[in-house]
């Protein structure tokens, strides 16, 4: 299918290319009848502006790209939704590209084909080995819980503190056994949980740190048998984690129990398994999550969770990116949102 | 920030532009040392291929666009995820643009700025008033439950039959009152439920038809008081619909009850309210959904729902679009997936 060009329109309407251009840009002076006739020809031939050509000239599309992992968690859609709203408030559109196991670097080529003015990268894993992906020819804002190495602006959320607070509360209340679902897979597999305190980035590591520090500060040793890995951090892995805990005597036979889940999807999967097992929540086991996704208000019982103000998070990322797109040359910034613990029926505190 | 051009690279590396081009495309013959040196210069200067210029020449990006409504339902993310997987299997990437209350036509301009080879449009509402949006300069596949008017290929899913089957089963079992959550807002507001049989498109209308026909075929009149509108078809509206039903005597005081929800998000919201009200599911009220989202397997009790093979649905859309992108000129096609009812603990059948 051959694209209709501005030349085709000019020929068909018996006017100059300049006149067609003036009609398209609503500029120049001409008789209203002429303007009307050219518009009709544009409509009839189905002429559309060649944005590839235009963007070569103006270098702007008012489109922001988002590079994020696959849509396999409710949180991803929630984050994308908040970014879309924030971008629209600033007169920009958002397009989304996803990477899966290949990581951010696997889609850098694609980002150059999309014609966005700048990109928001999301990374929940450390970028140490590939921090060069932050050096692109377009402005970048990094979101997630990875270090930006002073290369680009970044937005993070509190991770250590909310999990520390929840775990400390459960310990202070004298809960017999407080388990965790969602720890970094390698640390659990290799029994290197002590190493978690050395890690300064990565969502899993930071949240697990909060849990471990609460025990240390209470003068209690962490029981590695009730610290369960997170896998894909989705409902299936939450269910799997809960079934695993049910097989651990220290947990199953405790006089009272709680599970700190590192995101809401994990908590929803765990809730389901505990109920199926015949346990009442929070009487037999208390469960908490992280993210405050919509489902956490509509599950049974409703889920105690961490709200880290995703709307502010998204708006900070969009605002910083647009400032860069428009030429801001200030030093790189790191913004962190604050948080609130939403207390609901799945816990007794 | 001035873009580094191929000329800059050639100058810096003391070679011709043709040689740089050969290095980029891994073609031509030259000494390995030269190739290596040019690569280093490309790296050092941060040269990246200008895809805007390139796409003017080749007219292809191997990117497919998806235009879909906002990410306010779990189903949207699930559909996007399946399309991403299907596109990748064919060597394409997917970028996503969303429309909200403005409808599909509000983002047509944006689609031209994204540089995709073709677009998948999703529409759950009739396009009658704006079917011209299907006439674009790029190939389009329409998905959702709207008519494509023979203009483009389209993919639909069965809507009437699964809801008919579920409702008929509940009626045949002698359930005292079978309500519905998710009907078209205007039909409920204006008490024009009879009109639903005249509608041949729109997800809400088609599924509501299935419900109404089951009653008609059983020789029973539909009780409009227990047919509740769907609003945004999310969990909040499901909860709202269930609270409404609790206030309707015909439902509340029936000897047995069921609620047919037109998607899973509505059903999850309703489940929560019934449990909060102290009703057991399915003993006091049976609940069914539609879509088989991940949450439907992990809620309490697990949800009986309709699986309409979203993977096939997504793969059909991607395959048809790619055929058009590659020049297929065959008559337009309509593909419909089949379905299976996943029977789980939220119903007694």
Automatic annotation (TrEMBL), chains A, B:
Pfam families (alphabetical): LacI, Peripla_BP_3
Domain HTH lacI-type: 4-58
Name of this chain's protein: Transcriptional regulator, LacI family
Keyword Aminoacyl-tRNA synthetase attributed: no
One GO MF term: transcription cis-regulatory region binding
Keyword line: DNA-binding, Transcription, Transcription regulation
SUPFAM superfamilies reported for this sequence: lambda repressor-like DNA-binding domains, Periplasmic binding protein-like I
Superkingdom, taxonomy of origin: Bacteria
UniProt KW DNA-binding keyword: yes
């Amino acid at each position: 299918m051959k694209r209709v060009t501005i030349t085709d329109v000019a020929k068909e309407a018996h006017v100059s290319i300049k006149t067609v251009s003036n009609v398209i840009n609503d500029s120049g002076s001409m008789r209203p009848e002429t303007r009307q006739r050219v518009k009709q020809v544009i409509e009839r031939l189905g002429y559309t502006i060649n944005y590839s050509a235009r963007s070569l000239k103006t270098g702007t599309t008012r489109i922001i790209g988002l590079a994020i992992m696959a849509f396999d968690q409710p949180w991803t859609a929630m984050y994308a939704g908040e970014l879309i709203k924030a971008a629209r408030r600033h007169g920009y559109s958002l397009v989304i590209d996803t990477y899966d196991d290949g990581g951010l670097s696997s889609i850098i080529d694609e980002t150059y084909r999309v014609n966005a003015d700048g990109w928001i990268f999301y990374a929940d894993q450390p970028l140490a080995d590939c921090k060069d992906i932050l050096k692109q020819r377009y402005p970048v804002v990094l979101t997630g819980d990875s270090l930006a190495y002073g290369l680009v602006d970044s937005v993070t959320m509190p991770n250590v503190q909310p999990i520390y607070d929840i775990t400390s509360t459960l310990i202070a209340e004298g809960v017999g056994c407080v388990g965790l679902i969602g720890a970094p897979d390698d640390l659990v597999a290799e029994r290197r949980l002590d190493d978690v305190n050395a890690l300064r980035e990565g969502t899993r590591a930071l949240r697990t740190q909060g849990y471990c520090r609460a025990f240390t500060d209470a003068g209690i040793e962490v029981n590695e048998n009730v610290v369960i890995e997170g896998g894909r951090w989705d409902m299936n892995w939450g269910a799997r984690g809960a079934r695993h805990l049910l097989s651990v005597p220290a947990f199953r036979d405790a006089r009272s129990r709680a599970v700190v889940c590192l995101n809401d999807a994990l908590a929803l999967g765990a809730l389901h398994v505990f109920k199926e097992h015949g346990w009442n929540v929070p009487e037999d086991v208390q469960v908490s999550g992280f993210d405050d996704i919509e489902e956490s208000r509509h599950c049974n019982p409703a889920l105690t969770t961490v709200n880290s103000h995703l709307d502010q998070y998204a708006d900070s990322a969009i605002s910083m990116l647009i400032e860069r797109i428009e030429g801001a040359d200030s030093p790189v910034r790191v913004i962190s949102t604050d948080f609130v613990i939403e207390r609901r029926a799945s816990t007794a505190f």
